[in-house]
Amino acid sequence: MSRNVKYRVNGRLRFGEVYFYFRCRSQGREMVLAVISMYSEPNPDLLAESHGTFASCQYFGDNALVVVDVLCFESVVAMVPHDPPHSIDSELHFFLVERPGLDTANLGGNPSQESVTT
To answer: Taking the model in full, what pTM does it have?
Structure first.
C-alpha cells in the first residue's frame, strides 16, 4: 500500500508519509483529513546539481506530524531510501520517484490495441 504523497499547502509543494485518514465535521462541512509525517524540503544543493531531477529529503517520523486535507493531495509518490554523501549516520534520507511503475506499465504491449488484419 502506497503511503507517500505529494501535496500542496499554502502554495508550497511538500512530501509526506500518510499515517492514517479520518473524517470530521468543521463549521458544518464534512472533511476527510490525513495525519502525515512531513519530509524535509529537498536538499537544495543536490536539486540544483541534478537540474531539478533528484529530490533528496530527510525523514523525521513522528517528530513532524501534521494534519492535511486530502483535497491538497496532488499524487502518490515513492520515497526510496538512500545515503547521500552529506548525511550523518542518524539521519534518514529518501529520494523522490514520481509515477512509480508507470514507465514499465506498457512494456508488454496491449493485445487489444494491436492491429488486426482481416
So the answer is: 0.75
